[in-house]
Fold this sequence. Notes:
single chain, alpha/beta, two-stranded antiparallel ribbon, 16% strand
Amino acid sequence: MKYTELGLINTTEIFRDAIARNYAVPAFNFYNMETLQAILDAAHITHSPIILAVSESALKYMGADTLIAMIRGANISPNDKIALHLDHGGSFDACAHAIEIGFSSVMIDASKLPFDDNIELSRRVAEFAHQHNVSIEAELGILAGIEDENTQSKISSYTNPSDVEKFVNATGIDSLAIAIGTSHGAHKRKKDDEELRFDILADVAVRLPGFPLVLHGASNIPQKLITTINEFGGKISGARGIDENQLRRATKMNVCKINVDSDLRLGATAAIRKSLFEKPENFNPREYLSAARQTMTQICVDEIRNIMGSENMI
């Protein structure tokens, strides 16, 4: 299926605009109807372009037919400036499958491979994606942390700025994910005053002027969500996110896509725990899932306004 049949766009135009106007397009991960609705509601409230991100494991969880049916049912228009993106595709086949079923953007994550192997696999995916007018993202550097079974690493390595020009030129990719201190999961920093490696980001931005850069593992981890989860029976300690001021600073240095997943997971969990605690007799999923959807919508709205800077950009 061609993604244009679903009202989707690729990321070329929105990234160009984001760099020109110093904002980031939010890439919110979704994995069911409620998360999808929350993200789309926030996009409509704020008039922001967005990227609907789906990991391989989330695609498996929802099922390709169900996922595409939900996208079709959302009645998306190209004027909405919405892309459907495969997050952390682990192989050529995974990326090709996503393109064939209607994704408008894919990421090939070969960052754990040797440099030359990363180039070769990323180049192959880029060639295939461009045959279908689909945008392609790749990654240099490794983020630590755990997001799901397809996105996890016990090690991390910063992006080497001296590699980026060769990598981009050799692969033909459209955007590059870099590692400057963000990480997957809810435990992104050991201390509140830790800063991202803006020296690396600045060096990369100089070497790749005007080229779209991406930050993964960039959830803010609002502490009020952690407090709510723990107040109503959860047990999460030591969770810290990326400071919103640092993320806003990054958007002025060619970072035009910021990935958010953990914040929505935490929001849904906090809302569901609170709803069931306050009404323990309730067994209607529509009630507590509605609470989760409302909370996730507000999280997306807040981050579009206060972190991404993408409100009213369409």
